[in-house]
Design brief:
The chain is an alpha/beta fold. Helix content is 34%, strand content 14%. The strands form two sheets. The chain has a six-stranded parallel beta sheet, with helices on both faces. Strands 2-1-3-4-5 form a five-stranded parallel beta sheet. α9 links the parallel β8 and β9.
Length: 315
Amino acid sequence: MTRPRVLVTRRLPSAVLARVEAACDMDLYDGADAIARAELLARVRGVDGVVCLLTERIDDEVLAAAGPSLRVVANVAVGYDNLDVAAARARGVVVTNTPGVLTEATADLTWTLILSVMRRVTEGDRLVRAGRWAGWALDFMLGTDLRGKQLGIVGYGRIGRAVGARAAAFGMRVAYTTIGDDQGGVSLDALLSTSDVVSLHVPLTPQTRHLIDQRALARMRRRAYLINTSRGPVVDEAALAWALREGIIAGAALDVYEREPVVHEALIGLENVVLAPHLGSATIETRTAMADLAVTNLLAVLEGRPPVTPITGGP
């Protein structure tokens, strides 16, 4: 029997790649950077499956280049704004993602960002490294207490709930809002105007693109902080830079950006923003589990079984 052909668009942990090699003829792109568009279009031709990352845009052009043999696209990410789900379904291609396995790591990273910006840790780190610390003083680099404050969670799915579950340990109360068909919690306006920390946990959709714009930022409290570990375009970065520069909000911490890896230049020079390089799921255990789940989905479809985590919603 002919073994299925599979394109893997980036190196994965060796134990995970071994599973693909054992069952398939694997074409692994092993470059240091994301695969170039032209190379992706060339190497996808005639494959039965693709394992991709969020750095690859799998749209109708790629699906057409693959041809009728393509049966499954397994995305190593929980978000899938890099996939044209509707185009894949129209061609009978199963698409999958990796929810659940990165929930706890992303929730931990969210709290890392909250603490870093509210207690000015990364700002202080820069000062020490630059040799500008003159010693302890009573009023030096004062941050903000978490206890007694309200954490507003925008998007109350797996990750939003995990972030909320940790709030009690810091003495914070939780408010939440949902965006989309399943409305719940308080309204977005009410959450923005009453929360001391606003943390974003929504997928990127036409409805959530620039959800946090100049108007939304103006609704927030002057001493509030914005945290984004969801998708970069959920926040209008130019508007955020304005809000931080003008004191509309106290600070922000971002793990994702509108045009990754490019960060809006107006944010770079601001001290009241923490800028992390998309580390939400970046633990050894979590990234391995994500890759392993993606391959489990891939092999299930190629073997005629339903995948564990198919993408059932989305545009």
